[in-house]
């Protein structure tokens, strides 16, 4: 249970969280293995865990991992530990982390609490370290409550802060919200998500998602110039998203049709997923009379990608039916006239932020994209009307200096969302929880020598 609910006295002196006295644990269905990557969650926990390890924190990542890999693997000079669970089930279900989901979920809930207790919590307690456990999304909700119970029964709950983070609304109907809020501090990634969750009887803390620092590296000017010369006289757009109605694919296609009717010769680079809704998107393309070319490549370099596009017949849309490498993706973000990240429901909107980091022009929705400000660092849509996309881009075409300002300011905005900066936000929230939960752990030797030790 949360310590604030137990009535412990709060003192005036609190240790500061730092690498010498704090251990982090992430509990997530997804993880860094290719087997475990199904969406943004695996990327999130992998990148955040790596940043914590680089900054000196002992960090553990528990996830449903590759069945043929080691169950316990240590990286970053021992500071990052990977714990792969459910391998005895995964070895019979090779399609990925969500195949056999229910069986894995039951096993996950059984093994993770005891693993944390015996292999992580007890060793941390012997050295008076604070244990911070962060559960991700609905698969980890019941497990997080069970972790709280196990720590409480073994006299270790005051030595831990438990948070459960919502990256989206998937599985909310599977969660016992009263129990989760009693055992953990709830957290989410945007103010929009906070407002979506408050009717459930919870009031989450907000810590945004982040991007790795490498995304701030400039895209090659030479490649950008080659792209723009190759497609001179055309309006170039791109969209990377799952095939999902919330991603507003139909709005994007209808906007392309209207650009074509205006004689702007649009060229739309699109990359979707394997979802069934993709059939509806492709059917809409046919109904609108748009000419589509499918492009299949294997891990192309940017130069090879441009060559392959040049070999295609004249078309309005290029459907990239392959895994698009990051350097090709960032070239499209930077060199296209705009990137359509126009979701109708977006818990955070990582693509828009990645576009800004590449100094592209992101066209976002107006839900969880807290970072986006209309005509300052992005184009922010208020409706699902394709004419709003068309009108916004026509305005930028007649005000090229504003378009350049958006690219520049967007690049500056993205710097506030690198993982190192997001980590500062997380630590500040944890410092607040240290106070409200009166957590017991070793103090920071940089504090005043008169500070008393934490009460047992």
Describe the model:
The protein is an alpha/beta fold. It folds into two domains: 3-210 and 418-437, Rossmann fold (3-Layer(aba) Sandwich), CATH 3.40.50; 214-416, Glycogen Phosphorylase B (Rossmann fold), CATH 3.40.50.2000. The chain has 15 helices and 15 strands. It has helices spanning 40-54, 87-90, 101-126, 141-153, 177-183, 191-197, 221-230, 249-261, 277-287, 302-310, 326-335, 350-357, 386-398, 400-414, 419-437; strands spanning 22-27, 58-64, 72-75, 80-85, 130-136, 160-166, 185-188, 205-206, 235-240, 266-271, 292-295, 317-320, 338-341, 362-364, 379-380. The strands form two sheets. It has an eight-stranded mixed beta sheet with strand order 3-4-2-1-5-6-7-8, with helices on both faces. The longest helix is centred in the first third of the chain and has 26 residues, at 101-126. Residues 1-12 and 444-456 have low confidence and may be disordered.
How are the SSEs placed, and which strands pair?
Layout: E1 22-27, H1 40-54, E2 58-64, E3 72-75, E4 80-85, H2 87-90, H3 101-126, E5 130-136, H4 141-153, E6 160-166, H5 177-183, E7 185-188, H6 191-197, E8 205-206, H7 221-230, E9 235-240, H8 249-261, E10 266-271, H9 277-287, E11 292-295, H10 302-310, E12 317-320, H11 326-335, E13 338-341, H12 350-357, E14 362-364, E15 379-380, H13 386-398, H14 400-414, H15 419-437
Helix pairs in contact: 3-4, 4-5, 7-10, 8-13, 12-14
Give the CA-based shape.
elongated
CATH architecture title of the largest domain? 3-Layer(aba) Sandwich
Continuous helix count: 15
The count of strands amounts to 15
Measured distance between first and last alpha carbons = 17 Å
Strand order in the largest sheet:
3-4-2-1-5-6-7-8
Question: Main sheet, how many strands, which sense, barrel?
Answer: 8 strands, mixed
| Sequence stretches where pLDDT stays below 50 over 5 or more residues | 1-12, 444-456
């Amino acid at each position: 249970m949360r310590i604030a609910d137990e009535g412990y006295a709060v003192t005036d002196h609190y240790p500061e969280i730092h690498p010498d006295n704090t251990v982090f644990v992430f509990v997530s269905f997804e993880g860094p293995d290719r087997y475990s990557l199904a969406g943004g969650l695996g990327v999130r926990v992998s990148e955040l865990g790596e940043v914590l390890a680089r900054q000196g924190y002992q960090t553990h990542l528990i996830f449903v991992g590759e069945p043929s890999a080691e169950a316990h693997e240590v990286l970053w000079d021992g500071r990052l530990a990977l714990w792969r669970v459910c391998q005895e089930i995964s070895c019979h279900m090779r399609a990925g982390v969500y195949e056999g989901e229910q069986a894995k979920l039951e096993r996950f809930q059984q093994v993770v609490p005891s693993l944390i207790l015996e292999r992580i919590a007890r060793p941390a307690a012997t050295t008076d370290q604070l244990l911070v456990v962060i559960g991700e999304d609905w698969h980890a909700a019941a497990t997080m409550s069970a972790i709280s119970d196990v720590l409480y029964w073994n006299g270790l709950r005051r030595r831990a802060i438990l948070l459960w983070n919502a990256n989206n609304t998937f599985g909310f109907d599977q969660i016992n919200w009263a129990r989760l809020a009693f055992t953990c501090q709830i957290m989410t990634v945007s103010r929009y998500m906070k407002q979506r969750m408050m009717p459930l009887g919870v009031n989450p803390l907000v810590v945004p998602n982040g991007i790795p620092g490498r995304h701030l590296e400039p895209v090659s000017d030479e490649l950008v110039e080659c792209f723009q010369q190759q497609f001179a006289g055309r309006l170039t757009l791109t969209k990377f998203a799952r095939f999902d109605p919330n991603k507003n694919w139909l709005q994007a296609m209808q906007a392309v049709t209207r650009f074509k009717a205006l004689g702007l010769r649009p060229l739309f680079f699109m990359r979707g997923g394997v979802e069934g809704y993709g059939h509806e998107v492709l059917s809409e393309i046919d109904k609108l009379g748009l000419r589509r070319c499918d492009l299949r490549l294997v891990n192309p370099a940017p130069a090879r990608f441009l060559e392959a596009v040049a070999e295609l017949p004249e078309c309005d849309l290029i459907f990239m039916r392959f895994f698009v490498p990051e350097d090709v993706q960032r070239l499209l973000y930077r060199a296209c006239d705009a990137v359509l990240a126009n979701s109708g429901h977006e818990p955070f909107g990582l693509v828009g932020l990645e576009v800004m980091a590449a100094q592209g022009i992101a066209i976002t929705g107006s839900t969880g994209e807290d970072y986006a400000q209309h005509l300052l660092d992005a184009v922010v849509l208020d409706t699902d009307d394709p004419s709003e996309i068309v009108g916004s881009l026509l305005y930028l075409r007649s005000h090229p200096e504003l378009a350049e300002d958006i690219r520049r300011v967007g690049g500056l905005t993205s710097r506030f969302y690198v993982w190192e900066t997001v980590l500062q936000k997380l630590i500040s929230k944890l410092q607040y929880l240290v106070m409200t939960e009166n957590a017991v752990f070793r103090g920071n030797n940089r504090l005043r020598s008169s500070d008393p030790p934490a009460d047992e």
